[in-house]
Amino acid sequence: MQTKRMTFSSKWLPYALLAPQVIITVIFFIWPASQALYQSVLRQDIFGLRTEFVGLDNFVRLLNDPLYLNSLNVTFWFSVGTTFLSMSVALLFAVMVNRMIRSRDTYTTFLVWPYAVAPAIAGVLWWFIFNPSIGIMPYMLKGFGYDWNHRSSSTDAMILVIIAAAWKQISYNFLFFLAGLQSIPQSLIEAAAIDGASRMKRFWTIVFPLLSPITFFLMVVNVVYAMFDTFGVIHATTEGGPAQATNILVYKVYRDGFVNLNLGSSAAQSVILMGIVIILTVIQFRYIERRVNY
User: Fold this and answer.
1) What integer is the mean pLDDT of 229-251?
2) What is the 3-state secondary structure (H, E, C) of 228-276?
3) Distance set, CA 212 to CA 89, 204, 290, 292 (Å)
4) How would residue 149 be classed by pLDDT, with cut points 50, 70 and 90?
């Protein structure tokens, strides 16, 4: 059997084809990352007129700062809640839509639309829904005897930002889960049904294990999303409050760098955040991927 090999008329053509991606990576990732690493070992005044090399002092201060440690804890629970809620709801929707025959495409279109909404708009939308003064959800919850107020309750604020962030990501997860469900051979499910397996047992013993590669991929993507791409949601809903209850790491980087003008500490925080995401990704690929059946 002969294998076909791609040949280029010019030896510079492959480099020219790769150049746009390389340029984008250098400009928007490598250069900002290198600048963050450089600034993380410096201390500057608020006007940027005086710079002092302090080594790892910015990192030591952060690890001894109760507010930063609180932000780490908040980020952990926010990431877990957002990932679990967005993936579980998306899987439920995908299973329900996959059973439809005539209206599958219509429901898929409607469920995909929220992904086009900007994070800040999603935050504003849910802020209005849960607004203690004019929102419909606090009014409905009041009927059940619960007085909702995310402005004063840290629990309510965390629930609000998790719902807003997860709603934005459900559409993305839904598309992958639906594609995975449609690729599962129906003969396996029909054989299990003939053997007497219930619908729930068929899902957990056949369908869900076959979805493990997609589930693993989405778990990695959702953790990165919760760590980096939820700034707009936090800024539009709670601005990190009340009492630092929703001040996740990426929002604290913004507050310390652009509001408080503590550039050295902000750069150190961004380096730590990048390191956390890299470590989590390595752990997921190293240990969790072993349970994935390809």
Assistant:
1) 92
2) HCCHHHHHHHCCCCCCCCCCCHHHHHHHHHHHCCCHHHHHHHHHHHHHH
3) 16, 11, 11, 5
4) very high
> Domain of 160: which CATH number?
1.10.3720.10
Mean pLDDT across the stretch 197-211?
88
What b/e sequence results for 240-251 when a residue is b if at least 16 CB atoms lie within 10 Å of its CB, and e otherwise?
A: bbbeebbbbbbb
Contact, 58 vs 40, CB < 8 A? yes
Q: At what angle do helices 212-228 and 154-182 cross, to 10 degrees?
A: 150
Do 114 and 121 touch, CB atoms closer than 8 A? no
Q: In what helix (H) or strand (E) does residue 52 lie, and over which residues does it extend?
A: strand 51-53
- What pLDDT, in 10s, does the model give residues 182-191? 888 888 888 8
| Residue 293 burial (C-beta neighbours within 10 Å; 0-12, 13-18, 19+) | exposed
- In order of 54, 191, 196, 236, 282, the CA distances from 256 in angstroms are 18, 59, 60, 18, 28
Domain containing residue 266? 66-293
Residue 267: other Cβ atoms inside 10 A: 23
Rounded alpha-carbon distances, angstroms, from residue 235 to 172, 230, 232, 273: 22, 9, 5, 18
Say how far apart CA 95 and CA 38 lie, in whole Å: 48
Long-range pairs, 74-79, Cβ under 8 A, ≥24: 74/158, 74/244, 74/245, 74/246, 74/247, 74/248, 75/226, 75/227, 75/248, 75/249, 77/158, 78/158, 78/161, 78/162, 78/165, 78/226, 78/230, 78/246, 78/248, 79/223, 79/226, 79/227
Taking all residues of the chain, what is their mean pLDDT, rounded to a whole number?
A: 88
